[in-house]
Each structure stands twice: as C-alpha cells, then as structure tokens.
Amino acid sequence: MKTLIVIPARYESSRFEGKPLVEIAGKSMIQRVYEQAKACNLASDVVVATDDKRIFDHVKSFGGGVKMTSKEHQSGTDRCAEVAVEFPDCDLVINVQGDEPFIQPEQIDELIQFLIDNADLDIATQKKKISDSDDLFSPNVVKVTSTTDHRALYFSRAPIPYFRGLLGDDWCKKCDYFKHIGIYGFKKEVLIQVHHLPVSNLEKTESLEQLRWLENGYTIGVMETNFTSIGIDTPGDLKKIQPFLTS
Fold first, then answer.
1. Is 43 helix (H, G, I), strand (E, B) or coil?
2. Which contiguous run of DSSP H or E holds residue 181?
3. Of 170, 177, 187, which Cα lies nearest the Cα of 221?
4. What pTM did the predictor assign?
C-alpha cells in the first residue's frame, strides 16, 4: 500500500507566530520534522502542506516536497485532505504534526503498519500511558479510552474514566490512563470524507476534532506506543527540547 505523509504547517499562530521556521540547533523546526518523516521505511512520499510562501520557499530551499494550500482551512486535517487528492495513487495518508521536531521515524512506521494490519479501521492514532497526576488532570493533555480490540471509545480533556471513591492523586496507581498522541493515519477516502463533515456537538464542547469523526460513526484504532516526543506550542516550550538534542 502506498502511504503519503503530510506535514501541515502554517505561519500564523496566536501562540507562536512563525513557529515552523524557528531554528533549533542549526535547522528549522519544519526541516527537522520533514527529515524525520523522510527516514520512515513505510512511506512512499512526504510533503509539507502550507498556506504561507515563506514556509513554501524555505522547504524548497532544503529540497523538501511542499504544496501550497488554502488559507481557509480550520485544521491540519483539512490541509492534509487538500493535498491528498493530488496523489491519486496513495492509499493511506499520515498526518504528522509540524511542531514535533523529534518525532521518531519508527513511531510513524508503527502507526502505518497498524493501519495496514487492521484493514477494517477508518482512522488510526496512538496513545501513551500516563504516570503523572498533573498530566491526568491537565485539560491540555487529551485522554483516550479504548475497547479491548483497540478501538477508540472517547477522547476528552477530562480524566477518563472517572475513578469513583478514590482521591485523584491515587488514580494513576489504581488504573491505567492514557494520553492521546496527536498523529493520525487515514484511509485516503476516509480523509476526504471527514474533511467535508460539519463541526459536531461533541467537538464544539471539548474542542477536539476527532470527536467529530467518532460522532459520525468512523472507527478510530488506537495503538499504544512507547515513543516519547515533544510538541512545541509556545516559545517557552523551546526550553524543553535540550534532552532531545543531547540524547
């Protein structure tokens, strides 16, 4: 199966304008993400999807694949869908976040293989076990619950499941909780379909687009990963990357 990796990247960000072009130890963030994606064994093509000429020209300058997309898109998923239609031979599309410069190629490959091995899935994503109560109760860390056969039941900014009769500090000791890792794999035809779905009630409530897909009956496979990366959402997050530069 041919797999396309799309890396959405936009310049305008309320929390970190110009984030894809910020330099990290001699390379831009978007170049680091691109090179990690290119190192995958199971991907046929890698392309950056952007709406900004500065990012477009920069990706071209280091020899990367890049496509210009509409400025009207509300999410990276929409940007991926626009690009995917230009690759008629691809079967799967992987949305790799453009702000994870240290994502491991093996992590992307394992998601691709999971989607290949589970042909009945529409979408696939990842989870990682939570061991810290601060993460469990942080609304900025999205949690996920899934069935015994690895299908997503629900995603939430709240800790799920609720552990009745136990103090919150002890929840992680008595139950397995998982945070959602924001990498997605789609069957290409499913990606095109979800791009056209209207915003759903659950999505508006939690501000999580994957709830739109669940609410409309799409199956989302969730595989556990042991890989750890870091997303750069604000300039302050750059202070957290030193361990990844020295490891």
1. coil
2. strand 177-187
3. 187
4. 0.93
